[in-house]
């Protein structure tokens, strides 16, 4: 158990819908990272938040947005869902956000868009 | 474009065999990390290599970082069924104010008894 929790574990929805994925980092960790894992693209970095502020952005679509709240939990919002958005979404956390820190990954949310 | 290329993509071997997995890039990374991911779970960090030419050992696993810090390898000696999983390499890019981990697509390893 990494100490990072993600809800829900599974999500099935239809195209055009909007969903929110939730992540609670390890106790004391200030950084939260979101990743998308699909069979064809592998694990892709989406976005990094540190203590409530956005710090780095990867290949995150405009239909996707994220935020980190004062209690440090984070939410990833996916809207106007398409079939291709079906994937595993992972959240990871680290203590501060420096390059060589260990990132601890949650168990992921499996999203299926029908 | 994948910054990190891993090979082979799939590997099926018998218990007791040795294997090597490669992670190559045309970019220089300040550090490379190796993760192992089991089905239904998130990746778990195995090791971070920082210095060019560095070799790190973790029981039967040996990790090497290339001299130019563009490539890395993972060697497993006497593989066991418990080694089965997806092995991912990842390189960090960015500044200290925010950074991204770039992952390879992984090597899926199956070790049969």
Keywords:
heterodimer, A: 114 residues, 7-stranded mixed beta sheet, 4-stranded antiparallel beta sheet, B: 113 residues, mainly beta, 5-stranded antiparallel beta sheet, 0% helix
Q: How would you characterize this protein structure?
A:
The complex is a heterodimer of chains A (114) and B (113). Chain A is mainly beta. The mean pLDDT of chain A is 94. In chain A, 0% of the residues lie in helices and 53% in strands. Chain A starts with a strand and ends with a strand. Chain A has strands at residues 5-7, 10-13, 19-24, 31-38, 42-50, 53-57, 64-68, 74-78, 87-94, 104-105, 109-113. In chain A, 40% of the residues are buried. Chain B is mainly β and 113 residues long. Helices cover 0% and strands 57% of the residues of chain B. Chain B is built from no helices and 11 strands. Chain B has strands at 5-7, 10-14, 19-24, 32-37, 44-49, 55-58, 61-65, 71-76, 85-95, 98-103, 107-112. In chain B, the strands form 2 sheets. In chain B, strands 2, 4, 5, 9, 10 and 11 form a 6-stranded mixed β-sheet that branches. Chain B has a 5-stranded antiparallel β-sheet with strand order 1-3-8-7-6, with no helix packed on it. In chain B, a hairpin with a 2-residue loop joins strand 6 (55-58) and strand 7 (61-65). The chains are: A mainly beta (114), B mainly beta (113). Chains A and B meet through strand 5, strand 6 and strand 10 of A and strand 5, strand 9 and strand 10 of B.
């Amino acid at each position: 158990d990494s100490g990072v929790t993600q809800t829900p574990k599974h999500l099935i929805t239809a195209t055009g819908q909007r969903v929110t994925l939730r992540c609670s980092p390890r106790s004391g960790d200030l950084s939260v990272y979101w990743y998308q894992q699909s069979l064809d693209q592998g694990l892709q970095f989406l976005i990094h938040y540190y203590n409530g502020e956005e710090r780095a952005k990867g290949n995150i679509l405009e239909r996707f947005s994220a935020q980190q709240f004062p209690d440090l939990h984070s939410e990833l919002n996916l809207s106007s869902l398409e079939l291709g958005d079906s994937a595993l979404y992972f959240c990871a956390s680290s203590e501060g956000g420096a390059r060589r820190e260990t990132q601890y990954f949650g168990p992921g949310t499996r999203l299926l868009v029908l | 474009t994948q910054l990190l290329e891993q090979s082979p993509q799939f590997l099926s071997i018998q218990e007791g065999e040795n294997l090597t997995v490669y992670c190559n890039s045309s970019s220089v990374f300040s550090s490379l990390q190796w993760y192992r991911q089991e089905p239904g779970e998130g990746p778990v960090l195995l090791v971070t290599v920082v210095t060019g030419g560095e070799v790190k050992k973790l029981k039967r696993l040996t990790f090497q970082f290339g001299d130019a810090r563009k490539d890395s390898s993972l060697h497993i000696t006497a593989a066991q069924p418990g080694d089965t999983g997806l092995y991912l390499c990842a390189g960090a890019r960015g500044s200290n104010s925010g950074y991204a981990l770039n992952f390879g697509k992984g090597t899926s390893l199956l070790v049969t008894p």
